[in-house]
Amino acid sequence: MKVSLFITCLSDLITPKVGQHTVELLEKAGCDVDFPESQTCCGQPAFNSGYLQEAKQAMKQTIRAFQHADYVVGPSGSCVGMLKEYPKAFEEERAWYVEAKKLAAKSYEVTDFLVNVLNVTDTGSTFKGTVTYHPSCHMTRVLGVKEAPRKLLENVKGAEVIDLPEAEDCCGFGGTFAVKNSVISGEMVKEKSRHVSETKAEYLVGGDMGCLLNIEGRMRREGKNVKVVHITEILNAQEG
Amino acid sequence: MAIRIGDQPYEGRVKAGVDNTFMREAVSSAQGRFRSGKQKSSEELGNWEDWRTLGEEIRSHTLENIDYYLHQLSDKVEERGGHVYFAETAEEANTYIQGIVKKKNAKKVVKSKSMVTEEIGLNEALEEAGTEIVETDLGEWILQMDEDPPSHIVTPALHKNKEQIRDSFRDKKGYEKTDKPEELAAFARQELRKDFLSADVGITGCNFAVAESGAVTLVTNEGNARLVTSLPDTQVSVMGMERLVPTWEDLEVLVGLLTRSAVGQNLTSYVTSIIGSKLEEEVDGPEEYHLVIVDNGRSKILGTEFQSALHCIRCAACINVCPVYRHVGGHAYGSVYPGPIGAVLTPLLDGYEDHKELPYASSLCAACTEACPVKIPLHEHLIRHRQIIVEEEKKSPQTEKIMMKGFAKWASSPAAYKLSEKMARTSLKPWTKEETIEKGPGPLKGWTDVRDFPAPAEQSFRKWFKDRKKGEDS
């Protein structure tokens, strides 16, 4: 199966190992992974801030980049969720609307793709430690991916998954919200950090790097030593 | 008071909210109770998503045919001896009600809880005309005593604790007992009873007016609306023009959604329906009944992409799940309608000028959209508001505009994007220590005020992928 990786700009530039784990995971599951090099950013920062025209330029680039892909798979519920929003944004531009619909239909968040397209529920990984999972907002509420990441995590050998209190509460990331409304965002992430600490887990795992960088950044600031990992890292981990 | 509350700027309101530890604890624990209550009662009901769909259908059908149903409602109320007045503006509504109060020579008016009368500033208007107004909902009574605006649309005094309430009762009403809720409530009941008995006019809001019968329905837990609607000879109900349902059957669906979503109750203690005035053959009922239907900007929303905001049944489910509301409280919104629905409705009713920050007071986590019992896409409305603020109202900050223009250039050009692979790391080098940025420049500052930011990677993913490919190919 041919799969085109949608890396997301954040993981490309800030946390490239998320992409590496995603590629390896998909390959292990039998996919032939390619990386369309003309991809940039999905446009969400501009879209969510109200800059529709600016966002559309990024969106068009993304549509072009993945025009020939069979499947588009990305390690982020939020960015993939954005791809699903494309058709609405192009309702009045017929040609782009058609392309946007095609892209939305073939795009998947990586855990969703593994479980619901490839029927993989056990990635064969071993990861020793206690982990708690933060279900990010766009992954669960915009994209509707709730079960897949949990199912995959449950089958990781050695990992003990501890429930995160008020798990589905937003961590306060919200893209530009974290900068524009940093006071409120700060209060939200402090609360999330508290809940993570309550679990006493060694690792916090999630499927969206934006949210994870936010929580990790706050916990570091507080001097906590909880390790923050993207879910692909755990799913791709080998005993050693 | 009107829809806007206070004149502090947004940042100041947010800071005041965040710094108010007591309020935040009160809000947080109330949210916890409301949320688990809603969860439990909706699970008990079963098929919650189907009920939501039905609720949405009823609301959307009603709004699509609002002219018809308003006509029907108005006919039915008049058939039953009531007077119906359509007020286009807040002023018109207030002037009309002032007229009734004057004509009746009323010294005292008792009111049951009503958000629309907060929105139009009815109390101030009547007080100016020299009438004494007594709010009879316990929360509203406390707020009236303290001259404090509501901070929540269902539980307006959510931000106060029992010690504060005891002190207010003591200072303003000569209360001498403890802060035990039972004693406080008993005192309020005693005091309010006198007002009920001596009031000349009763004013209520309206949860839903039933178009097929002309029945204005009030959903309460304290029973105060029963007294407001049965003791004074003259009664007035004030409703937002969208607050109606076609039939009794529809009413049942929406009341069930309302009480469960608001407070996790299958049904409130009182659901009261009042129809018109006492007819000749009837033994009781008000001598005079007025229904005031308030537009105040609502009809401007009809037919727009925001029409579904008028589906709101004022249950506050969105407010009860909102993490932003939890940390800043209701007053930070600067509107009688706080939380996600407030951030959507307030700019629509009162313009963007004074409320342009509200649509941004959300992380777009969509908890509100998920909670709404009539499926208003609240977070999508917030994004649309932002687009209007940026593209039509042109009220976004200059620096942001420049950044977004730069973003568009960067993201639409693979070559420009490629440049940033190296540049991101190099340009942040002066602020980077041990792969971490603790005090970032420019737009990063907001981020690093509360948390660290990681240094961009030495090698991008695409570089790794390319090198790997090369290795495989050679």
TrEMBL record, chain A:
Domain Cysteine-rich, by residue range, is: 3-84, 131-215
| Short name of any one Pfam family annotated for the protein | CCG
Q: Record's Gene Ontology CC terms?
A: cytosol
Molecular function, one GO term: oxidoreductase activity
Q: Which residues form a coiled coil?
A: none
Signal peptide range: none
**What protein name applies here?**
L-lactate dehydrogenase complex protein LldE
**Organism of derivation:** Salimicrobium halophilum
The record lists the lineage as: Bacteria, Bacillati, Bacillota, Bacilli, Bacillales
TrEMBL record, chain B:
Which sites bind [4Fe-4S] cluster 1? C312, C315, C318, C372
Domain of life here?
Bacteria
Q: Where is the Lactate utilization protein B C-terminal domain?
A: 384-470
Which biological process terms from the Gene Ontology are attached to this UniProt entry? Answer: lactate metabolic process
Residues binding [4Fe-4S] cluster 2:
C322, C365, C368
Disordered: where is this region?
430-453
Stretches assigned to the LUD domain:
71-294
User: Where in the numbering of this chain does the 4Fe-4S ferredoxin-type domain appear?
Assistant: 309-376
Under Pfam families, the record lists:
Fer4_8, LUD_dom, LutB_C
Q: Name one GO molecular function term.
A: metal ion binding
Q: Read off the InterPro entries from this record.
A: 4Fe4S_Fe-S-bd (IPR017896), 4Fe4S_Fe_S_CS (IPR017900), FTHF_cligase-like_sf (IPR024185), Helical_ferredxn (IPR009051), LUD_dom (IPR003741), LutB (IPR022825), LutB/LldF (IPR004452), LutB_C (IPR024569)
Query: Which keywords are on file for this protein?
Result: 4Fe-4S, Electron transport, Iron, Iron-sulfur, Metal-binding, Repeat, Transport
Main role?
A: Is involved in L-lactate degradation and allows cells to grow with lactate as the sole carbon source. Has probably a role as an electron transporter during oxidation of L-lactate.
Spell out the family assignment given in the record's similarity comment: Belongs to the LutB/YkgF family.
For this entry, the protein name equals Lactate utilization protein B
Biological source species: Salimicrobium halophilum
